[in-house]
Write a structure and sequence with these properties.
single chain, Aminopeptidase, 7 strands
Length: 204
Amino acid sequence: MRDSCACPIIPNSGRNSCSPCAVPPFDVVITHLELTPADFRAKRSVRAGVSFSHVSPAIPELNRFFYAAVGSQWYWLDRRPWTLAQWTEKVGDGQRIETWILSVDGVPAGYVELERIEGGVIEIAYMGLLSAFIGGGLGAHLLTCACERAFAMGASRVLLNTCNLDHPKALANYQARGFRPLRIETKRKEVPTSPPGPWDGALP
């Protein structure tokens, strides 16, 4: 989502740190999308025991966990060095940002951060599943729940972006729920040779 598509990725020389050794510049193709209530097409999982819960009050440590664990495959890097104070400042304002957790039989499976933008716009800033839950149809369910919550928050439009570093089925999932491309841009970036893993030193 946002990191892999829109922020600079800075190489460094440390093994398995936030930015593994870089390769020659890579063309990151970013697709910006929007959804209106009239275009929304929900799709829910038939799996039993699936729930969607609001994290209130905010728990910055939980956002940090999901950011690193979910984003470990998709080059989410810019928040990995953040301090607790930075996380608290970013996600602690419940009027601006809401965090929701998708669980299966009580086990956390994924999350979404919804951010209020001016003019009745809600952005799905971050969203994804832990790797153990990918491939079972929960991505469409999570996106459905996120969009329904965004509209309940008063959104007239829901925005998100994706790119060619994200899950290969991400764009198809968004479009199947009714999202329409607004624009496509290409940015040349230095992309690490491999994703960073869920924590520093997690991968050999």
